[in-house]
Amino acid sequence: MAKFVYDFTEGNKDLKDLLGGKGANLAEMTNLGLPVPPGFTITTEACRYYLEHGDRPEGLADEVDRHLAALESAMGKKLGQSDDPLLVSVRSGAKFSMPGMMETVLNVGLNDESVLGLAAQAGDERFAWDSYRRLIQMFGKTVLDIDGDLFEDAVEDVKRAQGSDDDVDLTADDFKALVDRFKAIVRDRAGRDFPTDPREQMDLAVEAVFDSWNAPRAVLYRRQERIPVDLGTAVNICAMVFGNLGMDSGTGVAFTRDPASGQQGIYGDYLQNAQGEDVVAGIRNTVPLTELERIDKASYDRLLEIMETLENHYRDMCDIEFTIERGKLWMLQTRVGKRTAAAAFRIACQLLDQGLIDADEATRRITGGQLAQLMFPRFASRVDGVQKLTKGMNASPGAAVGKVVFTSERAVELAGRGEDVILVRRETNPDDLAGMVAARGVLTSRGGKTSHAAVVARGMGKTCVCGAEELDVDVRGGQFTAPGDVTVREGDVISIDGTSGDVYLGEVPVENSPVVQYFEGELSIEDGGDLVRAVDRVMAHADARAALRVRANADTPEDSARARRFGATGIGLCRTEHMFLGDRRQLVEQLILAADDQERKAALDALEPLQKQDFAGIFEAMDGLPTTIRLIDPPLHEFLPDITELSVKVALAGDKATEKDRKLLEAVTRLHEQNPMLGLRGVRLGLVIPGLFAMQVRAIAEAAAERRAAGGDPRPEIMIPLVGAVQELEAVRDEARAVLAEVGESALIGTMIELPRAALTAGHIAEAAEFFSFGTNDLTQTTWGFSRDDVEAAFFSRYLDLGIFGVSPFETLDRDGVGRLIRIAVEEGRRARPELHLGICGEHGGDPDSVHFCHEVGLNYVSCSPFRVPVARLEAGRAAI
Ligand code: ADP
Ligand code: MG
Ligand code: MG
Predict the structure, then answer these.
(1) Where do the domains of the chain lie?
(2) Is the ipTM of this complex over 0.85?
(3) Regarding the domain delimited by 250-336, which CATH topology (the fold level of the hierarchy) does it fall under?
(4) Which atom of ligand 1 lies at the shortest distance from residue 97's CA?
(5) From atom 6 of ligand 1, which residue's Cα is the shortest distance away?
(6) Of 852, 802, 806, 793, the residue nearest 224 (C-alpha)
(7) pLDDT per residue as tens digits for the range 570-603
(8) Is the shortest distance between the CB of 761 and ligand 1 below 6 Å?
(9) 241 in ligand 1 pocket by Cβ < 6 Å?
């Protein structure tokens, strides 16, 4: 039979699937001999069973009984025992950390009798009643689903009556009174009494933690972070230790390195006489961890010693939750800490230098997403004419500009209309998640670097300034005030700098980040500082390891040159359609309206030299590197005037309508399509409009010849779009070859694979193609049978809600469907032509997950937008490690 419960002494850090991250690491710390209060973990498997069947699996109750009995005998007291109660926390803990998303209930086991026993044992009545009211509050909110504000408001009332704004000033009698009020709230709102039986409290709390897996904010967070929906959470039952036992007690969080910058040092927050969640909630302002040295030197020294043990053991930056109970230090949690992108690069290289990890491991620990973050623009260093409002803590880097909003709902609403917003709050809580996702940045007036806002924003890579204490935020009034009598209202534009903590009124201009300046060659490694050095080092290792090459999608000489500076090894997709716009539209019209071969030829002859120039510039920028040029792809009518406008014009002109307009309207009408995506486009155009493809091929060949004559080394490759049958390709290939031969140039000729039929008949198509490039945008559309432009607004969010896909298939390649077609095409294509060169040129070429897929199926290269090239290089290296 399955084992559903593990004592902390039984687990270890590698059992995260089963025990969740928190449980696995509590076990690991226990086994390292660190001071962890004893306890046990109920597995994710039990949770999954419960969520599926609405009931606990058979045998779970017995196992919990046995482990609880063992815990009780280890502690020498029983859960809720009236003269000397054992109290426990019931804590959620999934495989991937979801800060503050799920539930935890502390002080389980207190009731009207045991609170007296606790008071007597501790010799502290106030503490016991404070703990009791916290239990009812957390239990009411978490287990009984009562609005937490009701409890908060009651606390505020009592504080107001005392003329104080701090919990610390409340007395035992105040807390006793609160317990009565809280019980009344429970009775009123939940229609039942607060349960006095300790075991019932515990069992109900366990179920509530299970259920919290499916709380809306947890669902949203998982989608945002791409965490699978069906993992479930473990539940940790842990003997309570008390940080609220007086000024020689307290609770805190610590990082073994700065999670914002990666610098080594002592980082964290500490709060005296408090229980754990007080720190994270940002209710009271904490002191920096270094102050603990003054407050309690022995605990401080012990903590530093443990931090070093943990870093060496995990070989990574860790974050830690600890509590001090009357001078005794307890470890309550650790995990490999979330960090900013810059910190990730710095820490990986520091650990490499310390010999704790090797270069492969350092590269594995950094993601393409993190590199992308470092490439975001930042505020210009010289800021004139913009008013600085204040400086807060630099909680999560980046430069964000937007309109001020004060609620999550407004943030979502305005962002939905395409506006940039900054969410401004006193502090955030898990219910603000939707607003944080929608906002460009987050600004809070309270809470430290470990507050909810800071932790969540860092996890999302969202710009955040927190603890800007000079600001007075009035959410209800829809405004905040800053020093110097400045009032900022909803809708006013502010700029926040998550790297420095500065907050400005108005819009601050942005400039390239140092990492982009380095890629651009505007900043040398020497001048770039340790971050640029770390990036350079990791990139070099990734390039050395990568099997996939990275090309760029670029249509102009400028884009091509930038792609090359960013490390592209060629162009995987040069689109030619934009070369038919602007002034050249006239010529396209002539081509389409041509009455006979002669008129058509005249139009083509006029277009050719223009095309040739376009290609010459690109070949120059890409000298010595392969340049894949796709022949014209979109439906022809896209180059013609809008049918409605033209009809109106001709109708209004009546008899006076020009012959030209009339013929144009006739052509536009003839070419109008119900379903242009599936209409006359791609290779079909080449077959229907004589001379069009030949003109393009001639322009390519002549541009190449010209470059060669000038001493250059052009490497053109000609790519035919939207082929579904080998016969289509054969026809245009023969035409292209003839033209190339005439000019005396050569080029590889290949095709895009972007229709299911092409993938399914790839073995035949490969006989006529020297390369394949998977056009995964169209291939995704045609495989699913939906058009991207039409579906994203219409039903994608519903599909994401329903879990039909975890992420849009236009963002990350759908391995099961589209990926299967790619596998078939790769295998059958290579079987027919072993030297077949294979690449991908859809948007997916710059998506980390999709890059890994391309590596797995053995493509030769990925091609993506120039700006994504470094990300794809890094991921190509990581995929090969
Ligand atoms: P989260 O995952 O949201 O951090 P936790 O389960 O870690 O939730 O618990 C919330 C807070 O309660 C933390 O600050 C933690 O340190 C504290 N806490 C949890 N269990 C105990 C315990 N047994 N004794 C004292 N404090 C605890
Ligand atoms: Mg925690
Ligand atoms: Mg296409």
Answers:
(1) 50-57+68-239, 250-336, 376-511, 546-576+615-633+686-880
(2) yes
(3) D-amino Acid Aminotransferase; Chain A, domain 1 (3.30.470)
(4) 2
(5) 91
(6) 806
(7) 999 999 987 887 778 888 888 888 888 999 999 9
(8) no
(9) yes
